[in-house]
Predict the structure.
Amino acid sequence: MVSSASNIFAGTETTPDINWTFLIMGLFGGLSFFLYGMAKMSGGMKKAAGDRMRNILAALTKHRIVGLGLGAFVTMVIQSSSATTVMLVSFVQAQLMTYAQALAVIMGANIGTTITAQLVAFKFTDYALAMITIGFLMTMFAKRETYKHLGEALLGFGILFFGMKLMSESMVPLRSFQPFIHMMEGLENPIFGLLIGALFTGLIQSSSAFTGIVIVLAQQGLLTLDAGIPLIFGANIGTCITAGLASIGTIRGAKRVAIAHVLFNIGGVLIFIWFVPQLADLVRWLSPVAQGSGAEKLALETPRQIANAHTIFNVTVGLVFLPFTKILAHYIYKILPDIEVEKGIIPVTWHLDNSQISHPAVAIELAKTEMLRMIKILGRMLDAFIHPFLSDEPEQDMRYPQLSLMEGIDMRESKINFLEQHVSEYLFQISRQELSDQQAEEVFAMVSMVKDMESIGDIIHGRISRLINKKQGLKEPFSVEGQNEIIDFHIRVMKQVSRLKIAFSKQKIKKVEKVLRKDLKYRNLETEYRQSHLVRVQNGKSESVTTHGIHMELMDLLKQINVYISEIAKTLLEIKHDY
């Protein structure tokens, strides 16, 4: 048996003219070109339209049909359902969408992958060198950054098809190599074809690449439609591995996206695997018929048939499952329910994902979500510190009853410092990637905003906490008028934090503009309150005289917090106006 195998690969049986070295180099070299071209094309498209894709995906997924179309469109553009699914995992991790909203997009992503197969079947490979030439010229000579990125995408597209052409030409000698032909005939066994497709797709991490290889085999007359259909079914299962790997270490909602992707793909295959002959008959009826016989006829007909089968399968499965997304979401939740976890006091990051650093559009969104968490923590610190100024009674932290109110402020300050360090480092890592001018500007603006947030935490924890001790040592309340002014100004600063939180989470420019309008108003109000307090001191009101220093410093610190909030809003507005 070993001797027989060695003779075959030595070229001594049936086809002595096969040069196996060049054949293997052609196959793997072509595959390398394909995968490199796909990565380059995807990178170019992400840089040209990544931020737009990010905003579209985050905003337009509430309707299932829109989500389906959106998933198909985005995947068609970046040519990778795995990349779309990984993006969805990150968006759920960033809490830009729920996992239920992501389900329709996943279904659409599988439809988008059919475009590559159709283009290969239509022999776009013949124009690969033209695409490479045009793409190269655009990257070299285009003045606008967007055109350069589109040129990079076209260059990658050409390299992708050139790799496919290399694989196709390297397989020509296998047309008459009987052992290989017999092996390909064995793929008509659906289970065997399914396993081969899943395994190979899992290894190369690209269902588009494997589907392209299947069509290349068909172009050489080496594969029948009945053998090709189980292979593309297997590719749909193998691509689940990428989403599974992307979900490791994420929040439970993001893990549900990966589970949905697996269940959806496997469920579709389990439905269709029993109807391979019927699907093949339907595809033959829909596809054009070629003249000739034997391998020549197979080479002319089968590529189009496999591409059509791939399209029909993914579109049909998407439409069948689409009405049941809510039911599917419910059962996935049963598989992976929320768990009650005691809120941690130890500082940790919730949303930063180092695996997304190479996808700047997604990584920036993750950093923004962690910054939104910083704003929420600051809001709780700001809400808590006013109580000790108004009462000498010790209070417990509202969210952590095991802590006193002051211990809660200390704990949150530790979180703010921790997050400032880690978010800044994450942003600096993003800045080292290849970014568009807008993305680079956004990243450095975010670094500035993080620093301003940390400064607010320092004011509350450092200066205001010391002022609380000083106030409690006096054993003297503020005057009624002074206390009311402090409470009123504190509430207004709290509203500023709330407006900033909404602006940050919902991308609302009007809220940012309102923060800036209120900033000037509140500065004037602080001056008015200061003058009122000084009049009371001048008139000799005992409470005002006794608490004068504390009153003045507290109002000044609240004003400083308001200034930092407005600085964050200004930076946020500058970013938004650039888009």
Summary: Residues 19-335 form one domain. Residues 20-59 form the longest helix (40 residues). Confidence is low (pLDDT under 50) at residues 1-16.
